[in-house]
Write a structure and sequence with these properties.
Distance between the termini of chain A: 37 Å
Largest sheet of chain A: 7 strands, mixed
Number of helices of chain A: 0
Oligomer: heterodimer
Radius of gyration of chain A: 14 Å
Largest interface: A-B, 29 and 24 residues
Largest sheet of chain B: 6 strands, mixed
Number of strands of chain B: 12
Shape of chain B: globular
Structural class of chain B: mainly beta
Order of helices and strands of chain B: EEEEEEEEEEEE
Distance between the termini of chain B: 41 Å
Helix content of chain A: under 10%
Shape of chain A: globular
Number of strands of chain A: 11
Number of helices of chain B: 0
Chain lengths: 115, 117
């Protein structure tokens, strides 16, 4: 089966510019996650979707970050305006409901550099 | 608060030897899951192994095994017969509420493993 697809793989923008990341989860996976991974650290959850509903967005900086998952499949994460501190790798992951080991499958990530 | 601690920023191992990567966790819950992921330089997080808090046997997946010591709150990853392709960052992660199918993962800082030929 195809894995989690993310685009773009790399993005370089100037501060105050907007940016958007796209994620297509594994077919049939109802749960979708966006994580941010700063350099030298482990990923941290930004938002989790169950189908089209955002069920955990407590870590999402809502003043500049937004996300959507229309129709419960693809998802887009947006930053507007971007700040220098937003430079990181943004990882998308998906999981299948009721899977025994609750494995989350990760995409390759989008590496964002804000200048 | 839940926390994962990986105290080894970097590790070296000779090819074909075994290596243990340390992980300790902190949680007040009785029900939780522990995961190890591998992250090569390409950036993708690759699932390696899972241990549930109520599992009585230590998890094994091929060359990977998880040394689960519940009383010590440790979940060390053992890689047997190291290969050059094992060189990568390794992350320990925890998810609370074992049967909460969509719970977030809390990751440690990671350990960078380098396998020497």
């Amino acid at each position: 089966e195809a894995g989690v697809v993310q685009s773009p793989r790399y993005k370089i923008i100037e501060k105050k510019q907007p940016v958007a990341f796209w994620c297509n989860p594994i077919s049939g996976h109802n749960t979708l996650y966006w994580y941010r991974q700063n350099l030298g650290q482990g990923p941290e959850l930004l938002i989790r979707y169950e189908n089209e509903e955002a069920v955990d967005d407590s870590q999402l900086p809502k003043d500049r970050f937004s996300a959507e998952r229309l129709k419960g499949v693809d998802s887009t994460l947006k930053i507007q305006p971007a700040e220098l501190g937003d430079s990181a790798v943004y990882l998308c992951a998906s999981s299948r409901d009721r899977s025994r080991d609750n494995e989350q499958f990760f995409g390759p990530g989008t590496r964002l550099t804000v200048l | 608060a839940q926390k994962i601690t990986q105290t080894q920023p970097g590790m070296f191992v000779q090819e074909k030897e075994a290596v243990t990567l340390d992980c300790t966790y902190d949680t007040s819950d009785q029900s939780y899951g522990l995961f190890w992921y591998k992250q090569p330089s390409s950036g993708e997080m690759i699932f390696l192994i899972y241990q549930g808090s109520y599992d009585e046997q230590n998890a094994t997946e091929g060359r990977y095994s998880l040394n689960f010591q519940k009383a010590r709150k440790s979940a060390n990853l053992v890689i047997s017969a190291s290969q050059l392709g094992d060189s990568a960052m390794y992350f320990c992660a925890m998810r609370e509420a074992l049967y909460n199918q969509g719970g977030k993962l809390i990751f440690g800082q990671g350990t960078e493993l380098s396998v020497k030929p």
